């Protein structure tokens, strides 16, 4: 079950807005209904529930609060040197230069603005997993954290605390009142497959990353809480 309200409301009004808080309350009521229904129907000791998100969100600045980055005003850069560009949404952009113009475009943008980071595809940090796919264009642009046009946004560097989602799990397969170190969201898929006795498709997750949090299907009802240490991350 996916709840789209918190994401769309956060984009429109900001993640800390009253509108977003009200939407989170609605989701909380839905979770409460699911858990009370499970208890009412005698499923508490048989049903595992995982509650998580696919990303975090942060408040961004606009309307004169930050200097705008206008590519067309950068000396030496021209959209005429591009076959295709994707720069109109989110904190990243990608450029496909015309044949023979990659270095010209790259050199014009590199270092042109203190809040604009420019990479050739092969230069992207490996931890971001954003340089090996054929669909990724030769030049990648990355705006600094919290610079964008919506009230709330995600897609920034995943080392920023606001980009980290949460994870909660309750049910007979999970240890009780356990708080663990953060783990990557990609590891949730193999965990779910393990709990459902499903053979997972090829993926980048690892069951070992979550092995400490579950105890098997025969245990009593347990609760897992994942937290993030801001001093470590």
Automatic annotation (TrEMBL):
Residues 1-22 are annotated as: Disordered. InterPro entries: Alkaline_phosphatase_core_sf, Phosphodiest/P_Trfase. It holds the Pfam family Phosphodiest. It comes from the Eukaryota. Coiled coil: none annotated. SUPFAM superfamilies: Alkaline phosphatase-like. Residues 9-22 have a biased composition (Basic and acidic residues). This is Ectonucleotide pyrophosphatase/phosphodiesterase 7.
């Amino acid at each position: 079950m996916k709840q789209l309200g918190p994401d769309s409301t956060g984009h429109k009004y900001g993640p800390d807005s009253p509108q977003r808080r009200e939407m989170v309350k609605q989701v909380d009521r839905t979770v409460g209904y699911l858990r009370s229904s499970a208890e009412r129907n005698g499923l508490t000791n048989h049903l595992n529930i995982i509650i998580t998100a696919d990303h975090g969100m942060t408040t961004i600045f606009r309307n004169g609060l930050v200097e705008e980055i206008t590519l067309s005003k950068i000396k030496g850069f021209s959209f005429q040197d591009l076959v295709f560009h994707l720069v109109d949404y989110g904190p990243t952009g990608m450029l496909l230069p015309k044949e023979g113009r990659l270095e010209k475009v790259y050199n014009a943008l590199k270092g042109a603005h203190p809040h604009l980071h420019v990479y050739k595809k092969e230069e992207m940090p490996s931890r971001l997993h954003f340089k090996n796919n054929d669909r990724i264009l030769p030049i990648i642009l990355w705006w600094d954290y919290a610079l964008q046009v919506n009230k709330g946004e995600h897609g920034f560097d995943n080392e920023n605390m606001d980009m980290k989602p949460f994870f909660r799990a309750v049910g007979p397969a999970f240890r009780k009142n356990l708080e663990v170190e953060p783990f990557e969201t990609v590891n949730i898929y193999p965990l779910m497959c393990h709990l459902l006795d499903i053979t997972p498709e090829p993926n980048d997750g690892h069951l070992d990353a979550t092995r400490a949090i579950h105890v098997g299907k025969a245990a009593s009802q347990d609760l897992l809480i994942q937290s993030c240490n801001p001093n470590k991350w």
